Amino acid sequence: MKHLKNIVISVFITGISILTLIYSEKISSAIINSVERCIKVVIPSLFAFMVISSVIIKSGLHKYFSRPFRLISRYILHINENLFSVFLMSFTGGYPVGAKNLAELYDNNEISKKEAERMLSFCYMPSPAFVMGISSVLYSSKKAGIIIYLSIAVSTILFAVISGFFAKVQYDNKSEYKIKISSETIISSVESSAVSLFKICIMIIFSSVIIAFVDILFSEIGVNENISVITNSLIEITTLTDFKKDIFRFLPFITALFSFGGISVIMQIKAIVKDRFSLKYFFISRIIIAFLSAIVSEIAVKFISITVSKEAIYIGSRENSVLPSIILIIMIIYLLWDKKTVAKRKNM
Fold it and tell me: What angle do CA 192, 196, 201 make, to 5 degrees?
């Protein structure tokens, strides 16, 4: 059986290698587009928030920000009262922010393995700007983006509340907390955010290669265009912008896809979390919350009318200068290199 498995894997890898040579132009184009998307969209939209959230976690400010919401944390969400700010930041920062914050808290022994696994299931949201940007391609009305985001938010909060009934939480009764903000805190926050962002971009580039292979296969067998877009969006959520028609009736499904995030985003989460804690609970929650999100959006559109425009403009398609992102990348590389050089000198 093991010998047969090795043969199958070898044949598959050989086949992929041959396809890469045959369709090298299309695959190269997909990689270039994904790199451009990382430089123009992903890095500018995520980096600043990831650094700020990391500083909040590393300095201990998250405990102070969470204190006004301790009753909500304790009696509604059933989480440690110091963690509400982590929950809140995941709702505004985008998919990977919650995972990054939880990983840092776990490394600092501020959250248990079970707590981190449970919180990861509902500290996972697309940012409002991201949802509005993608939905602007499909609909002329901002109501669609609002419905999509709020449907996911309501479903996520509902899941957090219900799952809390089965959770055992150890509450922190400390009345005073120390805040530690220093140059080292800021530098380490920039460093960890840069590493996480690099992993995110690598996963996006890899996903673009998979999507290129899927497009090649579907074009050969003549698969319906909308089915092709749906399949691709399960891999990379941004490909939803390729929908051409009948988009209104797909709104609940589009909401579910946003809630799921796509295989690319889940791979990003795995790259950030590594082996710190299991993702089994996370995978189960994604299916449940995606299903709930579709139901909530289906109910919402019955009460809110949405107009569809054939000339909707994608706000993310405007020409942005790549220079700021390139300068930022160079600065990050220099920072990491300089820090390692200083560390080596100290050890001599």
Answer: 145
Give the model confidence (pLDDT) of 9-68 as tens digits. 777 678 777 777 777 788 888 888 888 878 877 777 778 888 888 888 888 888 888 888
Are 73 and 80 a contacting pair, CB within 8 Å? yes
Does a structural domain hold residue 255?
Answer: yes
Cβ(230)–Cβ(255) below 8 Å: no
What is the separation of C-alpha 83 from the centre of its chain, rounded to a whole number of angstroms?
A: 19
For the chain, what is the domain count?
1
* 262-315 confidence digits (pLDDT tens): 888 888 898 888 888 888 889 999 999 999 999 999 888 877 765 554 444 333
Q: How many CB atoms lie within 10 A of CB 77?
A: 22
Conformational region of residue 109, where left means phi above 0, alpha means psi within -120 to 50, and beta covers everything else: left
Does 136 reside within a domain?
A: yes
- Average pLDDT of the residues in 253-266: 89
Closest by Cα among 265, 276, 264 to 104: 276
Contact between 50 and 217 under an 8 Å Cβ cutoff? The reply is: no
Contact present, 172 and 135 (Cβ < 8 Å) = no
Task: Name the residue range of residue 96's domain.
Answer: 32-307
Pick the closest to residue 152 from 248, 261, 247 (CA basis).
261
Q: Is residue 17 part of a domain?
A: no
Query: How many residues make up the chain in this entry?
Result: 348
- Residue closest to 189 by CA, chosen among 104, 93, 308, 79: 104
Query: What does the block give as tokens for 68?
Result: 């006004």
- In this prediction, residue 110 carries a pLDDT of 85
